[in-house]
Request: fold
Amino acid sequence: MLEQEGIDRISTNLVCQRAGVTPPALYRYFDDKYAIIEALAERLMARQNVALDAWVARYRGAGLEMVADKVIELLREMDAITSAQPGALWIMRALRAVPKLAPIRLASHNYVADVLTDLYMPFLPQVPREVVRLRTRIAVEMAYSIDEMLKEEAVNRELVFDEADKVFRSMFDYPEYGVRITGK
Reply:
């Protein structure tokens, strides 16, 4: 429905009609249409977090060079998850466009940044955590924007992944702290 109608045109009555439920039944579980989108977003983010946790487990302790080499693998996994979720692009758009939903997006993005920062810090003991965390948080925003771009535009997907890989690899260079990634 999000794809067909857009967030503005969807109403709880339309949701009830399509779902074959009465408004009182819907309101038993959801306060409004935004609560429905919130539930869909949480389901999508839970799937993403499972993939994130598995990726972190695979590369924890593998070394900074290996992690840098595999970041794009994580981006590809997130792309696959959102591609498989009906309406995912519209859910992501709603999380950006609707002020009431912004805290959900921010909490998710901050969670991902914290998990990744925790993964990176053992490899970067000479770099202040707040610097790694900020750079990681910026990278998380870029990753979600790339995911949206892959769904919204007719782009050469492999070229996008190749170029994104270069950008994300560069986030592991901290020359001011003596850290350099050699590259592929």
